[in-house]
Amino acid sequence: MTIDIITDYQIEKRKYWIDEISRLCGDFGVDADKLEREINKEINDDGIESLLGLLRLCGAIPEKFDHDSSEEKLYSKYTDIVIHEAFSAMGFNSLVLKERADVADVECVVLLPMQKHSG
């Protein structure tokens, strides 16, 4: 019995996203919003396996993207979106920050239940 950690389908989806990022690269804000919508739709349509595939394969920026290029920056936003979706799937409150600054690009807040104090 073999276990496929990375499936052929997941490899094809990675190729799709790399090509999609290469095609978009125009208006960063518009492109990032489109990526977020499409990734969310893919996960909603295909389920948790889709999210796991995205997580397994998003960690390495494709070599074909030049350093500091629009493609590289959009790929970085793609990984932020995937991480956000993973946090959300685990039940955390998460959001992808729209502005680039000296902070992380994904914010995750864990709300702990209030503990009762005995007195």
Indicate the topology.
Elements: H1 8-24, H2 28-46, H3 48-57, H4 70-89, E1 93-96, E2 106-109
Antiparallel strand pairs: 1-2
Helix pairs in contact: 1-3, 2-3, 2-4, 3-4
Task: Compute the number of helices.
Answer: 4
Structural class: mainly alpha
Query: H/E order of the elements?
Result: HHHHEE
Uncertain spans: none
Distance between the termini: 57 Å
CATH fold type: Restriction Endonuclease
CATH superfamily: Type II restriction endonuclease, HindIII
User: What is the total tally of β strands?
Assistant: 2
Looking at the overall shape, the CATH architecture is: 3-Layer(aba) Sandwich
Q: DSSP strand (E) fraction?
A: 5-15%
Walk across the major sheet and give the strand order: 1-2
Report the radius of gyration as a whole number of Å.
17 Å
- Total domain count: 1
Mean pLDDT: 85
Largest sheet: 2 strands, antiparallel
Query: What general outline do the C-alpha atoms trace?
Result: globular
Quaternary form: single chain
- Under the CATH scheme, which class? Alpha Beta
Helix content range: 55-70%
Compact overview of the structure:
The protein has four helices and two strands.
Characterization of the model:
- It is a single chain.
- The mean pLDDT is 85.
- The protein has 4 helices and 2 strands.
- It has 119 residues and is mainly α.
- The chain has a single domain, classed as Type II restriction endonuclease, HindIII (Restriction Endonuclease).
- Strands 1-2 form a two-stranded antiparallel ribbon.
